[in-house]
Design goal:
The chain is an alpha/beta fold and about 425 residues long. The chain has 14 helices and ten strands.
Length: about 425
């Protein structure tokens, strides 16, 4: 998400939350807030993971089917305060493997792991990443791949103009320095994970743009294309399984229209050792904004789609979803490039209208169904916050589902073998219930 306020919900709410380090029945209190104190040496765990499963070469169709429905471990490893990343900085508890197991049990097969590095990166020319932080990132990746799920690992908050310490800034003048740093940071990350099997996918960056909306800045977009090329080269040059790993590439702000435009350049991948393309395209989907993200009572909408009675947008309905998904199919999927919708979702606005969650369920099911029909891989955005303005599907302390109807809807859509009619929102009188 672009707006950091939307991602952390509200700093006042987050600061008021009680942070627990004993989550989901896991009472390991030896971990510090940033998770640096680990029970298992991360490098030893890496070796065990690498030896446990041989590499399986998955083509476009196979990887799309295997990844299934995805879920974001949002507002955790990309959380930060005063330039310092910390998984509890925005109010979520320390991540546990029990949480990941609960996500898997619910039917998700992919976990996207947003990560910020910021002050964890040392000074140039080496830009050395703090080893304890990278150990913790690796431990969380191991939770995912160790449970036979796909992990999508990215550099997340470092590309925001709105984040204190952000440095992947596409319209700044020091581009040579930025690209050199980007190269060295990704080289270190890739080298740490180079022996992991096909369950690990690297994503170069997240929602990088100049912080303004409208038409992309041409020079800024050129720099984003350059970053992607630097990323591909850096990962491939570390060798081992990274020479054939699937890599995920975003366009301007992960916007579908800007990514399918001629301004987006797919990087060359000459060092790839697979027989066919091993690049994926990353986009996000949060349309219409007034329904998915807007929390202003004066402008927010709480109903969506053909069943809406009032308080809804006339733009961005079912036909628009299908058009956008088809656009991705025509531009990329039909040409051999899988597309991951790395973020999608609707915040809880039942504080405005008691019918919102049923329309959230309908939106999520429709988007996932349309994404699957067009060959896309959808990944729900979960920020860990449950209740007003939240995107949470799970209680990250107890690991219990908080929105089972939304979860069931998305899993139903991704697993459906045949076309089906999505059930209407279960609202007796949507007009009377709307704000």
């Amino acid at each position: 998400m672009n707006n950091i306020f939307k991602k952390i919900v509200a700093s006042a709410i987050v600061c008021a939350m009680t942070v627990s380090v004993a989550a989901c029945g896991n009472s390991d209190t030896s971990k510090s807030d940033d998770g640096a104190a680990n029970e298992v040496n991360a490098s030893e765990t890496a070796a065990e993971v690498a030896e446990a499963v041989d590499w399986e070469e998955l083509d476009q169709a196979a990887i799309t089917k295997s990844m299934g429905m995805g879920w974001n471990l949002g507002n955790q490893l990309e959380a930060s305060s005063n330039k310092v990343p910390s998984e509890t900085a925005w109010g979520n508890p320390v991540i546990t493997e029990d949480l990941i197991k609960a996500v898997k049990a619910a039917g998700f097969n992919t976990v996207r792991i947003p990560v910020s590095y910021l002050s964890k990166i040392g000074e140039g020319p080496d830009y050395t990443i703090d080893s304890a932080w990278l150990d913790r990132v690796q431990e969380v990746v191991d939770y995912v791949v160790g449970n036979d799920m796909y992990a999508v690992l990215n550099i997340h908050g470092d590309g925001y103009y709105s984040v204190d310490g952000g440095w992947i800034l596409c319209v700044d003048e020091n581009q040579d320095e930025i690209k050199d740093k980007f190269d060295k940071v990704w080289t270190q990350i890739a080298d740490r994970f180079k022996d992991y099997d096909e369950h690990l996918i690297f994503e170069s960056m997240n929602e990088v743009f100049d912080g303004t909306y409208g038409n992309p800045n041409p020079e800024g977009y050129k720099n984003i294309n350059d970053y992607n090329q630097v990323f591909v080269n850096a990962v491939r040059e570390t060798g081992s399984n990274n020479a054939k790993r699937w890599l995920l590439i975003p366009g301007w702000n992960t916007n579908i229209d800007h990514t399918t435009s001629d301004s987006f350049v797919i990087p060359e991948d000459k060092l790839c050792e697979s027989d066919s393309a091993r690049l994926m395209i990353s986009v996000h989907y949060y349309d219409p904004y007034n329904f998915t993200l807007d929390e202003n009572r004066a402008s927010a909408t709480t109903q969506w789609g053909k069943y809406a009675v009032e308080n809804y947008d006339s733009w961005g309905q079912e036909d628009f979803v299908d058009k956008q998904m088809k656009k991705l199919n025509d531009k990329f999927i039909s040409k051999g490039y899988p597309v991951i919708i790395g973020e999608m979702g609707v915040q809880d606005k039942d504080f405005i209208s008691g019918v919102c969650n049923e329309f959230r369920r309908y939106w999520c099911e429709y988007v996932v169904k349309s994404a699957k029909a067009n060959g896309c891989i959808p990944v729900y955005w979960d920020n860990g916050w449950n209740g007003d303005k939240g995107f949470g599907l799970f209680n990250r302390i107890s690991c219990e589902q908080t929105q089972p109807a939304i979860i069931e809807a998305m899993i139903r859509a991704i697993n459906a073998e045949e076309d089906y009619e999505i059930a209407a929102p279960a609202v007796e009188n949507a007009a009377d219930a709307a704000a």
